[in-house]
Structures are given as C-alpha cells and as structure tokens.
Fold these 2 entries.
Entry 1:
Amino acid sequence: MSNENNQVERGSERKTLILALIAGMCGDALLSWLTMSEISFSIFPLIALVLAVQALYQEYLRHPVSEDIPLVGLACFFVGAFGHSAFLKAQYPEAGSNFFSIMVSLLLLLWVGYRMGYIGRRD
C-alpha cells in the first residue's frame, strides 16, 4: 500500500512540474508577443496558459504538496520561460543572444535533477 501511495505522489509531482514548465513557456510566449515586433499574436499560448494554471490549481486542491515541490515547480516555470526565450532568439537572431537563456535553463535543470534525486543518486 505504501509503495502504491508513493507512486501516486511521484506521478502527481511530475504532473505539477510539467504543468509549471508549460505555464512558463506560455507566459514567455505572451510576453514575447508584447515585446518583440517579429512575433505575431496567437490565441493558443493564452488558452494553454489558462488551462495549465487551472490544472495546477486543481492538482493543488486534490493532492497535498510536499516540501520541495513549490520551489522545484518555480524552477520548472523559469526553465520553460528561459527555454522558450532561447528558442525564439535562435529563431530570430536579431532579437539578441540566447547564451544567457540557455545557461540559466541548464543550471536550473541541473538543480531540479539534483533536488528530484536524478543526479547524485546512488542505487
């Protein structure tokens, strides 16, 4: 019973982190539309952002949150935002360098991997 309960909590944590990543990408897409003239408006990032935030809220109501998840979720949000920013700047080089965005994304991903136990774990 305990192992099954642990699997459900682990799946819920992953769902929360993926939704935070999606919310970060959608938030950056909307911000890029407002600040970059090369980007045209699309309704889909707005719809995805609303659905991701709603699903995050429902997940918060359904399952209790462990200690590490809020901070790791915030890091995943920033990974999504900086990752999308790096992608756009690779697509539109005149918008600026994507070096900072890539470095922040990679450092945050390493930190998330360490906090979730994927890096430095001994079996």
Entry 2:
Amino acid sequence: MESGKQLSGTLAVSVFTAVLGSLQYGYSLGVINAPQKVIEKNYGLSLGVWSERAAVLSENSTEEEEFSDAGKHPTVIMYWSLSVAIFSIGGMLSSFLVGFIGDLKGRVKGMLMVNVLAIAAGLLMGFCRMWKPHFMVIAGRAVMGFYCGLTSGLVPMYIGEIAPKAYRGALGTIHQLAIVVGILISQVIGLDFVLGNDDMWPLLLGLSGAPAVLQSLLLPLCPESPRYLYILLGQEQEARRSLHRLKGAYDPSADLEEMRKEKEEADREARVSILSLICSSVYRQQLIVALMMHLSQQLSGINAIFYYSTNIFANAGVAQPVYATIGVGVINTVFTLVSVALVDRAGRRTLTLVGLGGMCCCAVAMTVGLNFKSDYAWMSYVCVAAIFLFVSFFEIGPGPIPWFIVAELFSQGPRPAAIALAGCCNWTSNFIIGMTFPYIQVFLGVYVFVLFAVLLLCFTVFIYLRVPETKGKTFKEIAAVFQKGHKKSPKDATELQQLKTSTDA
C-alpha cells in the first residue's frame, strides 16, 4: 500500500477525538445568542434592578421609571455585553500558550490537560443559580474562552501532524466542520421549547463542557503525533509505533525519512519563539500569508451576516426568523462537508479564491437588496439568497482553510509560534468586529456591506498574488516555495544562527 494513502480506524478515532474540542468551541460560540432575553431577565432579577411584577405594572401604567424589558437596563446591558465579549478575551490571551502547551507534554496530553478548564467552565455556568448568575456566567465564559483559544490551536496542530499527506486538507477541514456542527447544535437546543427557557438555560450553558468529558475518556486511545515524537523528542521507535497505529501495516521508511530530514532542518533552525518569529526576516513571507488568511476569515463580514440575518429574514416576511437562522446553520454544515470533499482535489488556494470572490459578489448583492428593499418587495428575497450564498462561499474556503494551512506553511521549529500568532490574530479580529460592528452599522447603515466587499476584494487580490498551493506537498516542499522568492543572504544565515542559540523559545 502506498505510503500516505492510508485511512485507518485508529486515525479516524484520533481525528474524531481531537475535533470534539472544536465542537465545544463552536457550541460555546453559538450558545449565548438564542437565550439572550431569558439570561438578561435572570441577570435583572439577580441584580435587583428588575422584577416581573414591576415590569407588568410599568406596562400597564405611564410611568417611565421602571424597565419593562430587563435587557434595556444599563447594568444588565453591561453584564450581558461582558458575558459575550469575555469569551474572545479569554481566547486572545490563551492563544499565545498553544505552542508551549503542545510542546510541554505532547499534543495528546496537552489536549487532555486543558480539558480541566472546559469542565470547570461548564460547571461554573451549569450551577450559576447557586450564587450570582451574572458573575458565574462571566467567569465560566472567560474560562471557556481561555480553553477554546488553546483548543483552536492544538486541534489543527495535532491533525496536521498525524494526517497522511493525501488527506491532510480533508482531515484539516474537519476542525471547521466540528465548529459549525457545534454552532448548529447550540442553535437547535437553544430554542425556547428545548433548553433556551427560564428553567433550563443554566443546563444549556453548562453543556458547553460535555464534549470535554467524552474527549478525556477517548484521548488515552489516541497515538501521539509521530512528528512530535521523532522531531522534538528524537524517539524514532516510538514514532514508528505511532505511524503503524495510525496507518496500519505498511512500510513507514518514507515517512520516517521525511521526518529525519525535517528533524535535521529543525535542529539547525531550533525552536523559534513568538518574538523571534515576529522579528525574523527568514519567515516573514510565511507569517504575512498566515496572518492575512486569518484576517480574511474574520474581516470577511461573516459575523455581521449572522448578526443581521434574523432581522433580514423578519423583513422578508419569514414567520419564524429563528428557524431561518437555524437554516443558515444547516447550510454552514453542508458546505463545510463540500469543502472536506473538495479541498484535496481543488486545492487550498483555489477554494479560498472562489470563496472570497463569491462572498465579495454576495456583499454587493446584499447592499443592492438592502437599498431597494422598501421600493421592491422581491428585493427582500435577494437579501435572503445573498445571505445563504455568502455563508456557502465562506464555508467552501475562507472558513476552514486558515485553521490548518498555518501548520502546512511552517516547519517544526517555528510551527507552534506561528499557530499561536495566527490564533491570536483570529481571536483579536473576532473581538474587534464583535465590539465595533454595531457602531459601524449605525454609521454606514445599508452600506455596511460595501466595507466588507472592499475588504474581500483586497484579500482576494492578496491571496491570488502571494499564497502558494500547498495541496499534496511535503512540509519541506512548501517551505522551499517561500525560500525561492527569498534569496538567502549572509544576514539570514547569521539570523538563523541567532535563533538557534537564543533561549527564549
């Protein structure tokens, strides 16, 4: 059997186990939206700024002092905003630790260690009624964000290192598939007649930690990354055993030879710290590409679409906009599956270009639809179609590919630092969009998607000009593409030597 073409049961179990962390990340992203009104009401009751009796009285009288809707009280708004935003802050902080945790005990034990955070976060939110719900939920969301920042780096790193070359793209895309499935599950069980109600909402939030329990039981069955064992620890026999477990009965000589060469390269270049990577001119091209790929994902306007969708569906005359939003979640999932099927055939670069270009056209269509919606009734349907197509194009390329392409662009030495930087860039831009979008929307009105269309066009041009195809290439071949455009100078040799001797890794 040809090396790199095998898909074994152990490999399937390992990938499934790893992406339970991604499922948890997606669930945590989506879970807070559906029960917003219910949580605000409970915050208001707990803070003593709102009561159901007062709300009824104020609705029946002309007095303005009382807030009939708990969500309109400034204190409740502050705590609610913090509950949402603290998740991104936790992710921003922990994304820097991905490389450290991944190298400390290995990829598998690293994922096992951080599950303590997810379970603790789930318990904090699940039992939030035992003390002050607003403090308990905010603490739980902060810890969960910290966990998700780590898992959004560790999962693609592990999958990228255990996947056979021929399936690296498809298996890497499963990280994003698990995220969108997590979002969809949270939308469905967040409906008011399931768990998104007064009685059950703490359980809804607490379930964020459930996948970590299952993952903790399964991780001991997963082999450690052969690349980590050979290249970082120098354990050739352990790496050979791990390869046999992942790929079944085959001759691992070619894989071990590739790792041996990469180890020699890694021994020459040493572990590269985050600061060294930022300052290094040797890796600058790869780093710019990695960061731009993550920026294109977050600044594409995808979060704005989710923010806007319920409102647009309502205007289009959809009786239950919440179900249409779940429909967006279903499309999210279906087109991520399409990406899994296509990514190793069509290639990363092609799918990203098609995705960003398609999203740019949809953003223009959205702007036209929003502008003429009041003049022509059918323009509402143009908006709805644009939303569905926008999400489809996002999941074909710009959604899943940035997560795993960073692991492909860098060799073993700078890889953990690069994944940490790219993750931090992703979380920071996510946070910035989340905080500024309501203000941008007020300022630009119906032209808000013109801004995203311009950004998408810029990203499309950049990727066309600067991003190489990584499909089917070894890590060394990918690095060589960048070295071709970067002539090695005596200064680079000195810089690599400095990176080798520096101890700040």
